[in-house]
Specification:
19% of the residues lie in helices and 27% in strands. The chain is α+β, with helices and mostly antiparallel strands. It folds into 3 domains: 56 residues, RNA-binding S4 domain (Structural Genomics Hypothetical 15.5 Kd Protein In mrcA-pckA Intergenic Region, Chain A, Roll), CATH 3.10.290; 94 residues, Pseudouridine synthase (2-Layer Sandwich), CATH 3.30.2350.10; 105 residues, Pseudouridine synthase. The strands form 3 sheets. Strands 4, 5, 6, 7, 8, 12, 13, 14 and 15 form a 9-stranded mixed sheet that branches. Strands 1-3-2 form a 3-stranded antiparallel sheet. A hairpin with a 2-residue loop joins strand 12 and strand 13. Helix 1 crosses helix 2. The radius of gyration is 20 Å and the shape is globular.
């Protein structure tokens, strides 16, 4: 699809929302993945369009945004009329994307309930935030747009606290650390993120050692920012990659994926204002591996 711009000084993502049926979040994803170019150049969502700019939207990103409800088991930790807290298993993609339009948490949520927000468009029903496919644990879902809007603002202003548990390769020598290193798209592999000074955003991870094993370290990580793959990239950067990470660890990984778990979440309920706190145990595979390390 080609669009010849006839206006000036409008954000690119906002402009395309008005000219297509795509949601703003989908447009931002397509821009990041080079499926949308302006005058044959990659631009940020904040780019201000100019008259006679030529916007090219490539085909094939998501051909059909209609989500088919699928009977996928959903482990609901908590639910009321406004929110759902889900314990996402490792291996489950959060929402449809390239090459995966049916077997996602979003498909399962659509089957589970017809009360989901549509603030992020049809392709992300109820999805306020995401965690990686092979990261397990707590995920917050909005059942209506009012809750979604408030929760999104809370994430933006760092009012939702999340704690992750990760198993690192190697014995980290310090009891705690703060990794303050900017993250952007890798120049060597566009599918990966990396610590880089080019086209990067600030990223801060606070890490604390829980327990050391022979050749491994169990840590908790609290994010001050929410960059793509942040914990995985930061752990690789300091030389202690997450065990079984198929992307950021050079060792061969099993199908379970990285040993990274969203274990705790604390926030104020978007409607009642009540303080909410949830904890989620480690997956069986993760816990079994730790038990085996105890015997070494």
């Amino acid at each position: 699809m080609e669009i010849l711009v006839e206006e000036n000084d409008i954000r690119l993502d906002k402009y395309l929302c008005s000219k297509t049926e795509y949601s703003r979040s989908l447009i931002q994803s397509m821009l990041e993945s080079d499926y949308i170019t302006v005058n044959n150049k990659k631009e940020k969502p904040s780019y201000k369009v100019k008259k006679n700019d030529l916007i090219l939207i490539k085909e094939g990103y998501i051909k059909d945004t209609d989500i088919i409800p699928s009977e996928i088991p959903i482990d609901v930790v908590y639910e009321d009329k406004d929110i759902i807290i889900v314990n996402k298993p490792s291996g489950l993609v959060v929402h449809p994307g390239n090459g995966n339009t049916n077997n996602t948490l979003a498909n399962g949520l659509m089957y589970y309930t017809n009360e989901l927000s549509d603030l992020n468009g049809e392709e992300r029903p109820g999805i306020v935030h995401r965690i990686d496919k092979d990261t397990s644990g707590l995920l917050l879902v909005a059942k209506n747009n009012k809750s979604h809007e408030i929760l999104s603002e809370c994430f933006q202003h760092k009012k939702i606290k999340r704690e992750y548990i990760a198993l690192l390769c190697g014995e980290f020598p310090h009891d705690s650390a703060t990794i303050d290193a900017p993250i952007g798209r890798s120049n060597k592999d566009r599918k990966k993120m990396a610590v880089t000074d080019k086209n990067s955003k600030n990223a801060i991870t606070n890490m604390k050692v829980i327990k050391r094993y022979k050749g491994f370290t169990l840590v908790s990580c609290i994010l001050e920012t929410g960059r793509t793959h942040q914990i995985r990239v930061h752990m690789e950067y300091i030389g202690y990659p997450i065990y079984n990470d198929p992307v950021y660890n050079t060792k061969k990984a099993t199908s379970f994926g990285q040993f990274l778990h969203s274990a705790k979440m604390t926030f104020k309920h978007p409607i009642t204002g009540k303080e909410m706190h949830f904890e989620c145990p480690l997956p069986k595979e993760f816990q079994t591996f730790l038990s085996n390390l105890e015997e070494i």
